[in-house]
Amino acid sequence: MFEEYYREPDPVKRKELLDGYCPDEGDRVLQEQMRILFDLRYKHNRNGGYDDCFLRSWLDLKLAAGAPGGMMSKKRGTKQVRAAVHQLCLDRRDEFSGEILYEEMCHLTTVYIFSCLQDSKYTGVFWGLGKISDERQRSRVTADLEELVQGISRYPDVEKDIRILKRAIEDTENMLLK
Length: 178
Description:
mainly alpha, 6% strand
């Protein structure tokens, strides 16, 4: 169930998998943590679907990672990174199993990679009139992931909190892009 849950990109189907799972006694705690993370990650929108709050936080991290290094932007960036780390629950390792957080970050990285690879603006050249090769797409996503990891690592006091995210990015990148 866990494997199928973490492979499923659709939030509605993920919710169905989570609700339909009857865990053993030992898995009840993990399932409860998964439910809490699901509720923190996905919020209902007006269209009856879900908004991915973790993906929004990922984009906040990406924005902070690419920010210029001025003093004011460094303070603002640090605040933005800490808020995103908190939204991703990475600073709450005492509440959630490291395994569950790692799997959720791997899933988030997978969603990001597939979103990039399917976006015509991301994969296009010259205002979307052409399409770059699959190899070039992969190298572009790899460069983005490396920029994200290096960029957020330069902010003070977040190295401990982003360790799980960095490992998830690296492992997912190796699995999907290499």
